[in-house]
Amino acid sequence: MQLGARLRNVREYLNLSQQYVADRTGIPRSAISDIERGVRKLDSLELRKLSRLYMHPVGYLLGEDDTGEDVHALARAVTDLTDDDRAEVVRFAQYLRFSADTERRKQRR
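The line above is the sequence of Helix-turn-helix protein; the predicted structure tokens follow.
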């Protein structure tokens, strides 16, 4: 996936407007639009600002390293949850793992 498309997808996933991103990063809104459309390159400082705002590593935004991104996304998702809600997430993850293990055992038979 191209950098601009990846940036747009992350921004939209986080439900952020281009204007909000511009206000928080100091990058003009028109530049955000141009970057996402692939008609403007961005420098390393701009990429770093977007990485921080989007809470994604620069390597992920560049498409270089998706390793562990699911774990990072899960960690970001549970940050503001209560202790009880986080415990529920852990129980659900354990359930999913158990279900997947059970399904794999069935397929081996």
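Note on the example: The chain has two domains: 3-61, 79-108. The chain has a mean pLDDT of 88.
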